[in-house]
Amino acid sequence: MLRRLHWFIVLPLLVSQLLACTGTTAQTQSTGVPTTASTVGATSPTSGRVVNLNVFAAASLTESFTQLGKDFEKAYPGTKVTFNFAGSQELDQQINQGAPADVFASADQAHMDVVVKSGMVDPAAPRTFVRNRLVVVYPIANPAKLHTLQDLAKPGIKIVLADKSVPVGSYALTYLDKASKDPAFGATYKANVLKNVVSYEQDVKAVLSKVILDAADAGIVYTTDVTPDAADKVGTLDIPDQYNTIASYPIAPIKGSKHAELAQKFVAYVLSPAGQTVLAKFGFIPTKGSPTGAALPKRPLALSGLIDKPLSVSTEDLPRLPQAGVTATDKGVAPTQDKGVAIFTTGVKSLTKREVR
């Protein structure tokens, strides 16, 4: 028996990734966290006084978290977000020494593990919220005439790196290890590059600053550190995927925080579509999709099965299709509005209870 029906299919997760690659935003919600200030419930967490939330965050998050802090304050009137930006290795030490932190956002899992091991963060609390990748930077005038990654090994080049205790410094050493295994670089590549290092810095911003000030011919930073303000002061050499390291950033509230509920709300805000949109704006790689930030391959999306007319839509066409929303509910979580591309099919076959199961 056939029934003529119209099915309404919403594809929020896939489409949000596809639209991200085309510059179109499709807001999705899969974690139950708020999506906008209005749905967050923008009410003062206290009555008659300002609550100060101390967020300890990796230096590479300076620009993006500064914006997120402003947005969070608007969503939660009566809240003041105070940031402590530094190398993750400095931040975990400060937290373990009793510094008044409410939230910790690290540039790697290793330094988050330090505060978990000390008991300052619940083992189940850390959530990866964004990713990043490395790039070589040099002064815009390029005094050392650098054109390839191999040029970093030339004698006399002045290089500045972050210390190996800093996440980006550790990632840089991993890059050198990978490159040295490739005949295109040679087995002595790492050793020759390290001979050219004139200083090891305590955070990634110090590396970038020395390159901008011509105190070094080159440095290795995150792609997100080449902000619009820095873009006209430095040139870049891309590090291909096979040599690069994709940095994963975890975030968690601190145990014993005086503002535990608000700390959890800040973490949720960072993980929400609103927070992820800000991070993407500043060049970070989302936790979903390609780990390198590459665009999804151009291939058709096929819909088939118990329908009379199978449908095939290209990934290029999807962003141009109309969008619609549905209300999603989950036990213990407030209803949320999911948005995605609406695809209509006709002639859907009737399903028996057995088929539905």
Fraction in beta strands: 25-35%
- Residue share in helices? 25-40%
What topology, given as strand order, has the largest sheet?
A: 3-2-4-11-5
Radius of gyration: 24 Å
Tell me how many strands there are: 15
Distance between the termini: 19 Å
CATH architectural category of the largest domain: 3-Layer(aba) Sandwich
Q: What is the 3D form?
A: globular
Contiguous low-pLDDT stretches (5 residues minimum) are: 1-46, 345-357
| Highest-level CATH class of the largest domain | Alpha Beta
If you consult CATH, what is the topology of the largest domain? Answer: D-Maltodextrin-Binding Protein, domain 2
Order of helices and strands: EHHEHEHEHEEEHHEHEHEEHHEEEEH
How many domains would you count in the coordinates? 3
On the 0-100 scale, what is the average pLDDT?
82
Structural class: alpha/beta
Counting DSSP H or I runs of 4 or more residues, the number of helices is: 12
Largest sheet geometry: 5 strands, mixed
User: What is the name of the CATH superfamily of the largest domain?
Assistant: Periplasmic binding protein-like II
Write structural notes for this entry.
The protein has twelve helices and 15 strands. With 357 residues, it is α/β, with parallel strands linked by helices. It folds into three domains: 6-11 and 295-356, no CATH class; 36-131 and 249-271, Periplasmic binding protein-like II (D-Maltodextrin-Binding Protein, domain 2); 134-238, D-Maltodextrin-Binding Protein, domain 2, CATH 3.40.190. The protein is globular and about 60 Å long.
